[in-house]
Amino acid sequence: MPIKIPYAKKKVEKKPTGGKKIPFQSPKGMHDRLPADFVYIDKIEKAIKKVSLFYGFDHIETPLLEDIRLFERGTGLTSEIVQKQMFAVKTKGDGVLALRPEMTPGVVRAYVENGLLYVANPGKFFYYSPVFRYEQPQHGRFRQFYQIGFEVLNSDDAAYDAQIILASLKIFEDVKLKNVTVKLNTIGCKNCRNTYVKKLKEYYKNKVGSMCHDCAKRYSENPLRLLDCKQEKCQPFKAEAPQTLDFICTACKAHFKSVLEFLDGGQVPYLIDATLVRGLDYYSRTVFEFFAEGVDFAIGGGGRYDYLSETLGGPKMPAVGSACGVERMVEAMKLQQVHIAPKQLYKAFLIYMGDQAKKQGMLLLDEFYKAGIPVKESFAKESLKSQLRLADKEKVDYALILGQREVFEEVILLRDMKSGTQETVPLKKIVAELKKRV
Ligand code: HAM
Fold first, then answer.
1. Residue 433 and which of 53, 226, 276, 385 are 20 to 30 A apart at CA?
2. What is the pLDDT of residues 357-393, one digit of tens each?
3. Ligand 1 atom at shortest distance from the alpha carbon of 299
4. Which helix (H) or strand (E) holds 38?
5. Does 104 contact ligand 1 (Cβ within 6 A)?
6. Across residues 249-253, what is the average pLDDT?
7. What is the average per-residue pLDDT within 232-238?
8. pLDDT tens for each residue of 132-154
9. What is the pLDDT of residue 67?
10. How far apart are the first and last CA of the chain?
11. What is the DSSP letter of 208?
12. Is the CB of 281 within 6 Å of ligand 1?
């Protein structure tokens, strides 16, 4: 059940448009982010900034559009994202750009292209950015959505796999999401994975005929993703499938063991899920996903991508990262009835009567701005009664009342909204006076 927020409940008493509507809607799977949504979104963005500051992640943002080949090579030709979900934009020349379906390949490109390699090593970045996937819109699945994420570039240290998981959990904790589960697995490196994939193919050889259409394709193109299938008819086969941990090399095993030890050190509870492989092609070694109580989709996921830079034509650069879906986090916060106390944004409300007072009020607001005191106004309302009603609704501590007489006498009425008492203050002193009180 959605939580009660005064703004969200606000009823439109009169139809200000006289019932007229604009005959356009937001594109399928894309949503307006309204002020009521920002009650949650602001909290999430505040949390990622706070956590990033603590763990030393710097803010990064890359263009919305990138050369489509960045994702074809990076996210991978066998991934669903590249096969089915890219918004491609043809440019005037020969190039094709894509609306970024995720952030990771762009961040790697930016790190190498801008020489950040020589400035920040390892490079630790965070983002909160919109991404686009041409999906069939459904609950928790949109065509434009926002991701918050972390990337650590140029380090293969298992401590960073653990830190990325820990930092993501800190965000969930900060936004008061309860009972978040971390599932993780290792899918090995490019050498040992081949041995595993061979075993997997052997196992699925006689079963693939009874599995879904996509799995037949996965069997030949990317057998690891057979384990990622969500179709009911394919589920029973997963249970008996060979597990990566039995086939990966000693170095990968040691790396995974190290990740688990760091997580244990940070007292992070986790579940090892031997069928977790993730849907993007670039992953190697550690992979993980986050689930929140009450929602049946992952609220975040990530892993190591030690070969992505090389695949894109860059230097050897092991890396690890994660991203969480903001809309899914908001959904989970609503379902878990996370309480967000309404904040008092304004301490005072400016009430004017007459044109002279309106002009004087405009100047006065500028002085309050300079003094760092937010004062709300409603210049579109004229009557004292309706302005006072608004001041009351805003739950401000003071109303500043400026009529023609006050302008003439260069004073202003300062009304205490709780007690209802009122005093006259010289206009020149009102900013200092309010500053003293709030
Ligand atoms: P991903 O699992 O594709 O990973 O997406 C991360 C999160 O974005 C998901 O767990 C989910 O919460 C959210 N998400 C994905 N698709 C949708 C959708 N259509 N509508 C709403 N939310 C969605 C990545 O994107 C990787 N770049 C993560 C990463 C960073 N790996 C390493 N570094």
1. 385
2. 999 999 999 999 999 999 999 999 989 999 999 999 9
3. 12
4. helix 35-55
5. yes
6. 97
7. 88
8. 999 999 989 999 999 999 999 99
9. 96
10. 36
11. G
12. no
* Residue-level pLDDT at 92: 82
For residue 197, the surrounding DSSP H or E stretch is helix 192-204
Looking at per-residue pLDDT, the higher value among 47 and 92 belongs to 47
Query: Does 328 contact ligand 1 (Cβ within 6 A)?
Result: yes
| Domains of the chain and CATH, by start | 35-192+248-335 (3.30.930.10), 348-437 (3.40.50.800)
Closest-CA residue, ligand 1 atom 20, reads 141
205 CA distance to ligand 1 middle (Å): 30
Question: Can you spell out the DSSP letters for 228-267?
Answer: G---GGGHHHHHTS--GGGTS-HHHHHHHHHHHHHHHHTT
Q: Are 406 and 364 a contacting pair, CB within 8 Å?
A: no
Q: Which residues make Cβ contacts (< 8 Å) with residue 379, sequence separation at least 6?
A: 352, 358, 361
Strand blocks (E) in 20-122: 58-59, 65-67, 87-90, 96-99
Backbone angles phi, psi at 308, to 5 degrees: -60, -45
User: Greatest CA span in the chain, whole angstroms?
Assistant: 94
Q: Which amino acid is at 218?
A: R
How confident is the model at residue 13, as a pLDDT?
54
Q: Is 323 in the pocket of ligand 1 (CB under 6 A)?
A: yes
Is the minimum distance from the CB of 397 to ligand 1 under 6 angstroms?
no
% residues pLDDT > 90 (the chain): 80
Q: Which pLDDT belongs to residue 14?
A: 63
Lowest mean pLDDT among 7-16, 343-352, 429-438: 7-16
Ligand 1 centroid – CA 301 distance (Å): 6
Written as six digits, the tokens of 124 are 């630790």
How does DSSP assign 129-174, residue by residue? Answer: EEEE-----BTTB-SEEEEEEEEEES---HHHHHHHHHHHHHHHHH
